[in-house]
Specification:
The chain is α/β, with parallel strands linked by helices and 840 residues long. Among the domains are: 187 residues, Up-down Bundle (Glutathione S-transferase Yfyf (Class Pi), Chain A, domain 2); 62 residues, Methionyl-trna Synthetase, domain 2 (Beta Complex), CATH 2.170.220; 196 residues, Isoleucyl-tRNA Synthetase, Domain 1, CATH 1.10.730.10; 45 residues, no CATH class. The chain has 30 helices and 20 strands. It has a five-stranded parallel β-sheet, sandwiched between helices. It has a four-stranded mixed β-sheet with strand order 2-1-3-4. A four-stranded antiparallel β-sheet has the order 9-8-13-14. Strand 17, helix 19 and strand 18 form a beta-alpha-beta unit. The longest helix is centred in the C-terminal third of the chain and has 31 residues. The protein is elongated.
Length: 840
């Protein structure tokens, strides 16, 4: 707009009063003409006035205000006029009524509306239309029989206009500025009173605050912690401690990383909080180890600089995905050193550590022993020629660097030699009886995920062997000095050290960390991870806890995932294949849509695929068509027909169809709670959509439309009242999966975030005033599929170079086999011999 405007609206303007009609005209005009720079100011008198200080304009006549807003509004004011003078006559009639009798005005207005061709057309809105609509809305809606019944053409126009965006939003703005939700059910009856009669209920100012500020009643709201308030276990309550696998700081997380740990844990954390359990969710970046050192070398920075960079990057990605950590820390802290060294010393004191001299690969070129990830080579199990010294990424086998065929130094590609060195070992074999007894109990009581159970059982069945827990690195948790002076050039192995990070990160959150980690009778620990991390959480870390002799809180439930693949292949940052954390935001698709799709595709029992076509379908056909439209349809209907008040749903509440509907919702709610309690996260998305679909079916069965509203007012009120209450339940059920969606619904209902109940109750009472309508989801054009496939399908030049490199490797292998064949059969066998020995 060209100038800043100030609009004064009366504070007290009951329905049917001249002041409310004036406020409604002004609010409809502001919306229709996109006069966004208008500042609302409540006044104590009954008149509406508008000021434009820069232009020196002050207007007190409401019709003149509407015409002025049309002139200066961003949308402009234009409409096709009829060829005769009917339009002008109509404008004059409505804007300067010479007749005081409403019925006479309506008679003339109907004739002129038809004559001017406005009825049945999509002509742009005019000041006259706004003024006439507002007068009709304030004078006739709720009257029985309606005065509009005598004017069919005008009634058709009015009903059509009632569904327009500017009318719906104008009604809501006027109601929020001038009226409030009544204190009791008498409001619903008052709203249905005779035309022009003010409801005989006390009005109080509307308070529209944050979601957390809104109140309904005891036992409904989800507990919200205040800023700075520490979450600590409370005796006698359900105390849940949640961790997700600590992401390495050497790369940007891709969608598979996100769904495999932090997002899955976030859903369960939000579910626990929505059940009002006492719940703490901690995570952070895993910053020590070879991976950090090697990445720092690649980027030519110090390990600390690298950690600072990627810690901030991970935080930004998770913040966009709305991951609700109670604390996100890091492992490079004094608390980590103190707690890890304490565990190490207690294991040593109790006889579970040993020293052994081993042969280890040594690089003569840079004069140093090589830790696992500084060694690359061919996997002895699957012959993948780019395996690491600790693990093969192709077959998933955990390796020792000495097992690799044709090992090479990652730093300079030199061939390492074997030299003796000393390391500290954790005697897992001695701890196996304790570990096995604990596992057999925990896996049943905690109902572990199937793959977590099977992976742990396979380790125990093979028999636990001692495992080195020190490495030759400079970047890591140092060993205690006293008694280990000969090991000051070594650090704790990252996979012994990393799980201790959960404890130390909690210690950076609160000095009372032991209340969480050393109270197994009062706290249950849930851990989320990809399947490749299972042994460290189910064998090595629990064994370390048991070996200290302390009374630790140990894992109650392990929730694991398989792999999420991208369009039939693997995610690859180097080849630009797949969607990584920062790419999701770049698409412009809201975080909640990403969250829902990933969770609905969660690879719980087998690998799943990220498919763009499926992603778009989930948004358009499920979230938008099934969930979003249900919410939007009901909220707008309530605003348009009931002034944003929850109608009286009690008069028709004994309908058997309604009882059946309530029973169906409670059955689905019970299943939802049971599945989430069992950490069956993907099933929860299916049940959420079933609840939304049952709501859609309820509206369809009861034919919620204008005709039913006019013919069966009591039934329609009951349908709307039950529907709004179901939307409130949906906000709670969607909160773990789509928190921004839940908060939007709460705003629209002018209600606080609610808990997830055991039984569905009607908590939005008759007369409760809801808020303004918001769109939850938007349509995604199917053309985006091809665009996104091309953008995230890989760098073609890099792909071609990799293919050529692969062809060269195969050609070299073939040439070597031919060369060996020339030397005779024995030569070929001799060449294969060492590989077989190493592999075994």
């Amino acid at each position: 707009m060209a100038t800043s405007l100030k609009l004064n609206i009366p504070t007290v303007a009951p329905r049917g009063s001249p002041a409310f009609a004036q406020a409604l005209k002004a609010c409809c005009a502001i919306t229709a003409f996109q006069a966004d720079q208008v500042q609302f100011c409540k006044s104590t008198d009954t008149a509406v006035s508008l000021e434009a200080p820069k232009e020196g304009v002050t207007i007190v006549d409401i019709n003149a205000i509407v015409r002025y807003l049309a002139r200066v509004g961003g949308a402009g004011f234009k409409a096709e006029r009829a060829p005769d003078d009917a339009w002008i006559e109509w404008e004059e009639l409505v804007l300067r009524p010479r007749i005081s009798e409403l019925s006479t005005v309506l008679d003339l207005a109907e004739q002129l509306l038809v004559k001017s061709g406005i009825v049945g057309t999509a002509a742009a809105v005019s000041p006259a239309q706004i003024i006439l609509f507002s007068t009709l809305y304030d004078s006739t809606a709720g009257a029985s029989p309606s005065i509009l019944d005598k004017h069919p053409q005008l009634k058709t126009w009015f009903r059509k206009t009632l569904g327009s965006e500017w009318a719906i939003e104008g009604i809501q703005k006027a109601a929020a500025m001038t009226t409030v939700a009544p204190a009791d059910n008498s409001s619903a009856k008052a709203v249905k009173g005779a035309a022009g009669t003010a409801p005989k209920v006390e009005k109080k100012p509307v308070v529209v605050g944050t979601v957390a500020d809104r109140k309904l009643g005891d036992g409904i709201e989800m507990k919200v912690y205040k800023d700075g308030e520490k979450i600590l276990p409370i005796p006698g309550q359900r105390n849940v401690l949640i961790t997700s696998a600590l992401p390495y700081v050497n790369n940007v997380p891709h969608l598979g990383n996100i769904i495999g740990s932090v997002l899955s844990a976030d859903v369960y954390s939000r579910y626990c909080k929505a059940r009002n359990y006492n719940c703490l969710y901690v995570c952070g970046t895993d910053e020590y180890g070879t991976a950090t050192e090697t990445k720092a070398l690649e980027e030519k920075v110090t390990p600390r600089e690298l950690c600072d960079k990627y810690n901030a990057l991970h935080k930004a990605v998770y913040k966009w995905f709305n991951i609700g950590f109670d604390h996100f820390g890091r492992t490079t802290t004094a608390e980590q050193t103190e707690i890890a060294q304490d565990i190490f010393l207690k294991l040593h004191k109790n006889g579970y550590l040993s020293e052994d001299s081993i042969t280890q690969l040594y690089c003569e070129q840079h004069d140093g022993f090589l830790a696992d990830r500084y060694v690359e080579g061919t996997c002895p199990k699957c012959n993948y020629d780019d395996a690491r010294g600790d693990q093969c990424d192709k077959c998933g086998t955990l390796l020792d660097p000495m097992e690799l065929i044709k090992p090479r130094c990652k730093l300079d590609n030199a061939t390492p030699v074997v030299r003796p060195t000393k390391h500290i070992y954790l005697e897992l074999g001695k701890l196996q009886p304790q570990e096995e007894a604990w596992f057999n109990k925990s896996v049943v009581e905690g109902a572990w995920a199937r793959n977590g159970k099977m992976i742990t059982e396979s380790w125990l069945k093979e028999g636990l062997q001692k495992r080195a827990i020190t490495r030759d690195l400079s970047w890591g948790t140092p060993l205690p000095k006293e008694g280990f002076e000969d090991y000051q050039k070594k650090v704790l192995y990252v996979w012994f050290d990393a799980c201790i990070g959960y404890v130390s990160i909690t210690a950076t959150y609160t000095p009372e960390w032991e209340r969480w980690w050393k109270d197994p009778d009062n706290v249950r620990l849930y851990q989320f991870m990809g399947k490749d991390n299972v042994p460290f959480h189910s064998v090595i870390f629990p064994s370390s806890q048991l070996g200290t002799g302390d009374k630790w809180t140990m894992v109650h439930h392990i929730s694991t995932t398989e792999y999420l693949q991208y369009e039939g292949g693997k995610f690859s940052k180097s080849r630009n294949v797949g969607v990584f954390g920062n790419n999701a935001e770049d698409t412009g698709v809201p975080a909640d849509v990403w969250r829902f799709y990933l969770l609905a595709s969660r690879p719980e029992t087998g690998d799943t695929q990220f498919i763009w076509r499926d992603f778009i379908y989930k948004n358009n056909s499920e979230l938008l068509a099934r969930f979003g439209n249900f919410v939007n349809r009901l909220v707008k209907f309530a605003i348009a027909k009931y002034e944003g008040l929850v109608p009286d749903y009690t008069t028709a509440g004994n309908d058997p169809a309604f009882d059946s509907f309530k029973a169906d919702i409670n059955k689905l709610l019970k299943e939802y709670v049971e599945e989430l309690e069992a950490v069956h996260i993907r099933t929860g998305t299916e049940l959420l959509m079933q609840v939304a679909q049952r709501g859609n079916q309820f509206l369809q069965d009861n034919k919620l439309d204008n005709a039913t509203f006019a013919a069966e007012p009591a039934k329609t009120a009951a349908v709307v009242g039950l529907g709004l209450n179901l939307i409130y339940l949906l906000s709670a059920l969607s909160y773990p999966y789509m928190p921004a969606t839940a908060e939007s619904i709460a705003r629209q209902l002018n209600a606080p975030l609610r808990n997830i109940p055991d039984t569905w109750e009607l908590d939005l009472k008759v007369g409760h005033r809801i808020g303004a309508a918001e769109y939850l989801f938007s349509m995604i054009d199917m053309k985006k599929e091809g665009e996104w496939q091309q953008k995230y399908g890989g760098d073609k030049k890099v792909e071609e170079a990799l293919k050529q490199e692969e062809k060269k490797k195969k050609a070299d292998k073939k040439a070597k086999r031919k060369e060996a064949a020339k030397k005779g059969g024995d030569g070929g066998a001799a060449a294969a011999g060492p590989s077989n020995v190493v592999a075994n």
